[in-house]
Amino acid sequence: MNGYFIDMLLLLGVAVMLVWAFRALKLPAILAYLSAGVIAGPDVSGWITSPHDYEFVAELGVVLLLFSLGLEFSLAKMIAMRKLVFGLGAGQVVISTLVFTLVSYVLLENWSAAFIIGSLVALSSTAVVIKQLGETAQLTSRKGQMTVAVLLFQDIAVVPMLIIIPLLATTSVGNDQSIWLNLGLALLKGLIVVVALMAAGKWLLPFIFREIARQRTDELFVLATLLVALVAGGITHMFGLSMALGAFLAGMMLGESKYKHQLEADIRPFRDILMGLFFITVGMQLNIPVFVANLHWIILAVVAIGALKLAIVYALARLMGERWTDSLAAGMMLFQLGEFGFVLIALASSYQLVGSDVAALVVGVGVFGMALTPLVIQRANQWVSALLNDDRAVSETIAAQLPQLPDHQSQVLIFGYGRVGQTISRFLRHENIDHLAIDHDARRVQEAIIGGANVFYGSAERLDLLKAVHAEQAELIIISFADDERSISIIKQLRRLNDHAEIIVRSRDTRHLDQLLAAGATQVVPDTLEASLMLVSQVLSRSGVPIRKILARLDQARRSHYGDMHGFYPGETTMLTAETATTLLFLHAVPLPCDAYAINKTLAELKLDDLDVSVRAVRRDDQESTSISGDFCLQCDDVLVLAGRPHAIEAAEAFLLNG
Question: Is the pTM higher than 0.70?
Answer without folding.
Answer: no
